[in-house]
Amino acid sequence: MADPPSSHQSDPGGKPIDYEDHLPLVPIHIVTHASQLPPEFLEPSLERQLVIGFDCEGVDLCRNGTLCIMQLAFPDAIYLVDAIQGGETLMKACKPALESSYITKVIHDCKRDSEALYYQFGIKLNNVVDTQIAYSMIEEQEGRARLSDDYISFVGLLGDPRYCGISYVEKQEVRVLLRQDPKFWTYRPLSEQMVRAAADDVRFLLAIYHKMMEKLNQRSLWYLAVRGALYCRCFCVSDDAYADWPSLPTVPDNLIVEGIAPEEEILSVLDVPPGKMGLVIGRRGASILAIKKSCNAEIFIGGNKGPADKVFIIGPVKQVRKAEAMLRGRMLEMY
Description:
α4 (131-141) packs parallel to α8, α4 packs antiparallel against α9 (218-233) and α11 packs antiparallel against α12. This protein has 12 helices and 10 strands. Helix content is 39%, strand content 17%.
């Protein structure tokens, strides 16, 4: 039998986030064996559906990096799943939950987390509510158009009084430490700072989720589900066109008016020939920014984390096709 999970009760005194003014403290458990996780998480079921806060930490988190910790926030506890100590056995035990439609994973910007889970552990992250997407949907729904590349950061989301209204100073401190030592998340045993920082990245997600759900209308909720699924697939390039991934959410009947449904959203992966990425991006990003402004679609480039030879486009079908045509046009231009 596995040892019980190591538990921490973080002390809010002197910390940048005043927990007591926002949420009651909950135990923080460090998990190295699957038996230390709640059974309803390990065995997803229709009868016991869950909503949890979710995040991952690691070294250069992507397909080629190292996923070190996976955070799970329940209403009554936070679990830090130690992927280094528990290894592949522990992560595989979490696979059914992470792929289940019965467990909603609330996360902020899931793309790289999903990529790391897919390439390092063969996990296809499913049924996410991405608070970065939800924030944009609410802004659009309330008539505030988002500018190209203007994505809300997690720190920015926490600072918004409509959702949380706190100052997350320690996040920046951890970022400085990561720049100084990229292996920060690999060290064991976990320091109090590591435990606190990992827990803080999921501690407020459920409260934010409930506030966002109150604001989103039915149309926005459907788009949120679809776009979240596409974000999960984004950097997980698949030779079979994602045939082995869970199906995208279907359009609810109440959104079909006189036989007309909302426009479908898709993910397109565009291959960029060697030496052409510079043309796509342009000087100081001018070309790619101009294309983003011309199309109602999101365009992502792998950058340093890769894949370096592909462009990912998410949005309504017509807008994605328009972006594809403009990007291909850029590739045909001469230096």
